[in-house]
Amino acid sequence: MTAINDVVDLTREGEIAVITLDSPPVNALSAQLRAGIAQAVEQAVADDAAKAIVLTCAGRTFCAGADITEFGKPPKDPSLSAVQAVIEAAPKPVIAAIHGTALGGGLELALSCHYRVAVPSARCGLPEVKLGILPGAGGTQRLPRIVGAEQALEMITSGAHVTAKDAAAMGLFDKLVAEGNLREDAIAFAREVIASGAPLKKVRDLDEAIAPARGKPEIFAEFRKKNARKFRGFEAPEACIQAVEAAVEKPFEEGLKFERALFEKLVASEQSAAQRYAFFAEREAAKIPDIPKDTPTREIARVGMIGAGTMGGGISMNFLNAGIPVTIVETNQDALDRGLATIRKNYENSAKRGRLSMEDVEKRMALITPSLALDDLADCDLVIEAVFELMEVKKEIFTKLDGICKPGAIMASNTSYLDIDKIASVTSRPGDVLGMHFFSPANVMRLLEVVRGEKTEKDVVATAMALGKRIGKVAVCVGVAHGFVGNRMLSERQREANNLIMEGAMPWDVDRVLHDFGLPMGPFAMADLAGLDLGWTPENSTGETAKERLCEIDRRGQKNGKGFYDYDENRKATPSKVTEEIILDLSRAKGITRRAISDQEILERCIYPMINEGAKILQEGKALRASDIDIVWLTGYGWPVYRGGPMFYADTIGLDKVVAALETYAKSLGPDFEPAELLVRTAKEGKRISEM
Ligand code: COA
User: Fold this and answer.
1) What reaction does this enzyme carry out catalytically (predicted)?
2) Is the pLDDT of residue 69 over 90?
3) Ligand 1 atom with the shortest distance to the CA of 105
4) At 690, phi and psi to the nearest 5?
5) Do the domain assignments include residue 252?
6) Does the pLDDT value for residue 559 go beyond 80?
7) Alpha carbon distance 205, 428 (integer Å)
8) Is there a domain that residue 62 lies in?
9) Do 348 and 476 have their domain in common?
10) Mean pLDDT of 287-314
11) For residue 581, what are the domain limits?
């Protein structure tokens, strides 16, 4: 075995040269790795005894792509394209042996080899679009030449992983070999190739798969149209489409140049910087400085759920999906039956869409133990309550749980606002209590706020974080504060949205501005969706807000076809005259002279107070880092990932500008806009708040 450098080895097994890449954790294609590959291939080519070359990776995976940390920095030679040229030009067959995930540059590397063999558990994909770029090493040119334009469009614009089985069916993998024996089987495959005497197969020379799409721009137009909603606001998907179209229409070398030019433009864009930031931010969120990664966690074999309503049912589904049994407790049989029926309906809908088999539906349903007695939670390792949002109710539940739960069981509240320390204080074991705040719909939204109380034990936090990952959530550790991180910032936006409609804007103006900014919907459309009468009763109505006035005349939101908006039978919303009258009337009653409000003011007044609150959360130590706040907004509220999150967005505008705007608003609108001390200081020092 020859060490080419620290991360690449070359060895020969009879007539087969074997190149092994070993750069933990994921064999990302750093400059050192690229140089090593090129050199190893050149040596193997020069070795007359070697008749074929196998390229394989050590560790948990084949290459997971370009080294993302290198993007945006001065490029280092050799480029991946130069390495690919060496491989593709090799006069002997080069075979990529794939396990784990061949992603991005990793798959592009494999595409420049002459053959690809893989184990059945391997997956591959071109996830660059998720980083705001496109595959810039020939991926958009080579992939369609194997799988055709339509499949390539789908794979490249979604960034989705493809299983080995599907990859083999598409011709992307030439052969699947037994699990656990990849190296030997790849060598055997190489021997077969030599024995067959088949000419070298270069992907760049293939035409059969792309020929049918040539001269048919309608294929691409149709694809754009079909995905318009999904791609809204993003720059990279359009570039991906253009590059695939170039693969179909242009000679290979020209296509490569076209792809490269698009790549250069995207990689320097604000969107890509934001999306790369989000990639690392998500991984950072898993790290808690005073709780080491190897902290032992408690075993969670059974979960107890108190409440089978929308939240309780949605939360339960996460555990059922992961194969964890759940005991669901309700106060009466009707509520329990309704809850279970909703879970079943959700699963059956997934089955109808082909995402689940009916057998899986039954398997998941069988993991539920329905109950009407809290005592049945005695054997649960974790109990989560999702009952009415009132401190007294929560305290009563936790007092009972304290007497029921087995020693070492974790007791969690799904409260959205309430003080976890107060809830924990009614138990004899506050160290076992924490918040696990899921976001609606809880089986869909990725965010889990893990609320660490003053007395929560470290292993309890570690367990909740690990469990979050196990059930496919992005867990973010936050401190106790009214509304924690997400809802605390949301309240700021809500207050301003309400003020804006009193001062001169209409709900649809506010919603339009925030939707155009990239959010899925604005606050008033959101309120209609959630139901305006949440927490409202005729007795407690003050009649002082538009929302209350709407409830008083039975406008309850989407569910009865009228709220801030009027809805038709397809739930299409149109601005309501009635709402407008109510708002004008309220403004008059409050003695407000309405004025025209610009879109810019709407945006700033909705977003800047959120940024400001984020800075306050940071300065109070209620979030571990600014990027955690951004992850909360990206995964829990649909903040557009191409804007990085509220804190990252503040940096893209310029903190000094944000501070100046807040100060100006504070003068006319009052202390709600007073900039946080941390924001002012960070701006003065010329630093970035998203790096705090
Ligand atoms: N470049 C640089 N670092 C990378 C990387 C890349 N392409 N891919 C992963 N890493 C790092 C992660 O930041 C993480 O570092 P940390 O432990 O210091 O936080 C570490 O490798 C492990 O990654 P993680 O995502 O936590 O592991 P996983 O097993 O859950 O997932 C992958 C592995 C490969 C599926 C996942 O990391 C991934 O999707 N990577 C990005 C692939 C990609 O987009 N490639 C295209 C680039 S052109």
Assistant:
1) a (3S)-3-hydroxyacyl-CoA + NAD(+) = a 3-oxoacyl-CoA + NADH + H(+)
2) no
3) 48
4) -70, -10
5) yes
6) yes
7) 72
8) yes
9) yes
10) 95
11) 505-589
Best mutation site among 34, 61, 68 for ligand 1 pocket (most ligand atoms within 8 Å of CB): 68
54 in the same domain as 184: yes
Residue with CA at minimum distance from ligand 1 atom 41:
64
Residue 600 pLDDT greater than 80, yes or no: yes
Kindly report the pTM of this predicted structure: 0.92
Residue 203, pLDDT > 90, answer: yes
DSSP reduced 3-state for 514: helix
The tens digit of pLDDT for each residue in 440-499 reads 889 999 999 999 999 999 999 999 999 999 999 999 999 998 889 999 999 999 999 999
Q: What is the 26 CA–ligand 1 centroid distance (Å)?
A: 6
pLDDT at 261: 97
**Amino acid residing at 202:** K
> Which residue owns the Cα nearest ligand 1 atom 45?
65
Q: How many domains does the chain have?
A: 4
The 10s digit of each residue's pLDDT in 562-577 is 999 999 999 999 999 9
Closest-lying ligand 1 atom to the alpha carbon of residue 130: 44
**Atom of ligand 1 lying closest to residue 128 CA:** 46
CATH number of the domain residue 520 falls in:
1.10.1040.10
Residue with the smallest CA separation from ligand 1 atom 32 is: 64
Assigned token pair, 391: 């401190």
Which residues does a 6 A CB cutoff place in the pocket of ligand 1?
25-26, 28, 64-69, 101, 103-105, 127-128, 131, 280, 283
Atom of ligand 1 nearest to the CA of 133: 48
Instruction: Report strand pairing: 175-176 vs 303-306.
Output: unpaired
Where a domain ends, among 589, 610, 645? 589
Judge if 76 and 133 occupy the same domain.
Answer: yes
Ligand 1 centroid–CA 321 distance in Å is 24
Report the atom number in ligand 1 closest to the C-alpha of 136.
Answer: 48
Determine the distance separating the centroid of ligand 1 and the alpha carbon of 120, expressed in angstroms: 21
Residue 629: its H or E element: helix 626-636
Antiparallel, parallel or unpaired: β 368-371 and 115-118: unpaired
Question: Mean pLDDT, to the nearest integer, of 616-641?
Answer: 97
Confidence bin at 554 (pLDDT 50/70/90): very high
64 Cα–ligand 1 center, Å: 7
- The residues annotated with a catalytic role in the active site are 108, 128
Sheet holding 382-385, edge to edge: 368-371, 326-329, 303-306, 382-385, 410-413, 433-438, 447-452, 474-479
**Closest C-alpha to ligand 1, atom 22:** 25
Domain stops at, among 571, 589, 607:
589
Phi–psi pair at 472, nearest 5 degrees: 80, 20
Compute, in angstroms, the gap from residue 527 CA to the centroid of ligand 1: 37
Residue bearing the CA closest to ligand 1, atom 1: 67
Output the residue whose Cα is nearest ligand 1's atom 36. 64
Residues 563 and 609 in one domain: no
Q: Are residues 237 and 192 in the same domain?
A: yes
In a domain, 25, yes or no: yes
Question: Is residue 278 situated within a structural domain?
Answer: no
Degrees to nearest 5, angle at CA 206 with 204 and 209 = 125
Q: How are beta strands 410-413 and 573-575 bridged, if at all?
A: unpaired
Q: How long a stretch of residues is the chain?
A: 692
